[in-house]
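Message: A physicist's question: would you kindly supply an amino acid chain plus C-alpha cells?
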Amino acid sequence: MNNIARLWRTRPLASQILVWILCILLLTVALGAFLYSQISNQTLQRQYELRALGIATTVAQMPEVAADLQTGDPGHQIAAIAGKIQAEAQPAYVVVTDRAGVRFSHPNPALIGATLEEPVAVLDGQTHTGTDSGSLGLSANAKAPVKAPDGSVIGQVSVGILESTENSELAQDIWLIVGYSALVLLISTLGSLLLSRRIKRVTFDLEPADIASLLQEREALLHGIREAMVGFDDDGKVTVINSEARRLLDLEGNVVGKRLEDLLPAGRLRALLTGEIGGTDAVALTEDALLMVNRMSVSLAGRSIGSVVTLRDRTEVESLVRDLHSVQGLMQALRAQEHEYANRLHVVDGLLEMGDVEQARSYVSKISSTSNSTGEGLRSRVEPPELAALLLAKMTVAAEQDVQITVTDDSRLFAPTADTQSLVTIVGNLLDNAVDALSEQPAPRNITVQLDDSSGVFISVQDNGPGVPLAEIANVLTDGFTTKPARPGMRRGIGLALVSRIVRRTGGTMDVFPGPGGQFEVWLPETPLVSPAAASTATAVAAAAAALEGNET
C-alpha cells in the first residue's frame, strides 16, 4: 500500500489531475445513472398503475358487467368481456368479483368461481392502486368498484400489469441511460485530456515542487540584487518588479498587472522600457537619476513570454567620471598655457641672447599685464570664482582649437543667491556644445558669452556655427535628441536635456533660436523654486550625464 502511495506521489501533477477528474466523473455518472433509473422505475410504476386503473374503471362502469353480477352471471358473459378486454388492452389479468370475493373472470379458468385470498378492497366505494402479489406474481394493480343503479357496491374489478412487463420496458430505458452515460463519460474524458495538456503547456511540464522552488528562487533573486528589474508580459503589463526599480522609477502602490502607459509619462524612459527605442546600455533621465537601461525579450520552450528590463543608477559613477574629465580638462588648459608660456620664454631668451635687455623687459611687462587683465577682468565682473575659473579655462582650451570665446564687456554676474554648481553646469554644457559645433567650421570661429543679473540670472551663449535647424527647435531639448553624428564611446542627446531640466526645476526658462548661428538663452529666478539640496542633486545628474557623453551633447 505504501508503495502504491509513493508511486502515486511521483506521478506528474497533470496525470494526477486527470485520474482524479476521471474518477469523479465516473462516480458522478454512475450515481446519476442509478438515480435516473430509480426515478424512471418509480415513474414507470406509477404509469402502469394509472393504466391499470383506467382499464379497471372502464370495465366497472360497463352496464352489462353490473347486470351480470346482480344475476350471478348465468351465461358467463363477464369472463368473455374480461377476456376480450385483456386481449385488446394487454393487461396481465382482468379479474371481476362480487362483494364476497367470488371470481367471475380470471386468466386461469380453474380459479373462476373461487374466492379471493384477500378481502375485497373497494367496499368503501373508492378506487385503489398499488403492487399486488397475486397468483400470477407481482404486478402493478388497480381496483375499481362495480356499483348497482342505486350506488351500492356489488363487486370489484381488479386489473394488473405484471412486473416482468414493466421490467422489460425499464430495461430498454436503462440501455438508453447506459449509452448516454457512456457518451458523457467519453466526452468528459476527452475534456480531461485536453485540460491535462493545457495544464502541462501552461506550467511548462513543471511540477508543484518545481514551481514552488522557482518562486522562492525568483523572490530571492529579485530582491537580492542591487540592479533594478522589471518584467513585462507580451501585452506590455508589469508582471514583476523589485524595490530598486520602484525607487528609480518613483512607483508606489500595486503596479503589477498595469501597463506602462498608466504608470510613466511619455518620454525616452518609457520608450526604452516598452522597446520602442532599442539599444544596449541606453541612457535615460529621470528627475533624480541617470539610468542605464537594457531590455531583453524572453522566450521559453520556443514561445515568447514577455521581456525583462534592467536599470542601473549611474549617477554616482558618472559623477566620478565627471571629476576625472574635469581633471583632464584642467590638464589640457595647463598644457595649452605651458605651450603659450614656452613660446614667450623663447622670445625673452632670444632677446637676452641678442643683448636687447630693454626690449626683453618691455615684452615681459606687456605679456604680464595682458594675462593679468584677462583674469582680473573676468573676476571683477563674475563674482562666483568657480564660474570665472571655468570661463578662463574654457577660453584657454578653446584657443587651442582655434576658437575664440569672448565675454561681453557689459556682462555682470553678482548673484549670491544663485546655485554656483548649477551655473557652472549650465555654462559649461553650453560652451562645450558651441565649441563642438564650430569644430568643423572654417575660421573665424567665435563664441560670445553674455551674463546679466539685473533681474534674476541671464545667460546667453552664441556662436557663428550652423545653429539649430528651425524644424528641430521643438525637439532639441528632448531627452535623447541630437543633430550630431555618433562617436564611439560617446552618448549623444543628454546634455541639453539635462540643462533644460535644471533650469525648469529652478523655475527658469531656456530658449533656443534657429540658425544660422547657435544661440541659447537661459534665465534663472533670483529665488529658485527648489531647495539647494534638490538643485545640487539635479546638477549632479547633469554633470554625470555630461561625463557620460564625454562632454558632448
